[in-house]
Amino acid sequence: LGFSADRTMRTAQKLYESGHITYMRTDSTNLSSDALGMARGYIKSEFGEKYLPEKAISYVSSNKSAQEAHEAIRPTDVTMTPRDAHAKLSGDDYKLYSLIWTRFVACQMPPAEFDQTAITIGAATKSGEAVFRATGRKLVFDGFMKVAGVSSEDQLLPDVKEGSNVHPIDIAPTQHFTQPPPRFTEASLVKELERLGIGRPSTYASIIKTIQDREYVTQ
Predict the structure, then answer these.
(1) CA 208, CA 205: separation in Å to the nearest integer?
(2) Residue tagged active-site, from 16, 23, 42, 204
(3) Is 23 one of the catalytic residues?
(4) pTM (2 d.p.)
(5) pLDDT digit string (tens) for 115-164?
């Protein structure tokens, strides 16, 4: 959403205090059996059996030092969809609630499925055979993407048969150099804090605010 960590936590605090989401100062990925039942029931009634995995999906936190003292952040009532929330929430509250709701529902839906195609082209050169490879894919089942707000454009390849003659339209050789790591954003800094085991979800926003207030770093 392009929010700062401080803005995100202030918004989440409001959503929590108004009863729309569960406790937000957590790094847990665990969902209670009630929450899983709520999500699976909603998916079955809204999208049908095809979008419902046989068993509930569980996740392990990528942060090895995660305390997981609370449940994962989720909506308290899955039937309050982003469409319904529009009437009760506005601005940042609505945007963050919509994100939490879609991630919660999507995490209990099956993966998307693609038909993948690859074409390998051999060409004789003075230095030996050069091999070129093209890959394409077509979405055949959208799965979790149906609610997650993720889209995928089909990358279709022409219909060719083995042994067909093809001709290059354009050849553009490029040279790549190693790039330095990009500058931190607030989001990537939070990921680095998680990776190094520094702070907790309850302190990330204050850490980032402090280092900016003291001008140790600037945006």
Answers:
(1) 5
(2) 23
(3) yes
(4) 0.81
(5) 999 999 998 889 999 999 999 999 999 999 999 988 888 889 988 899 88
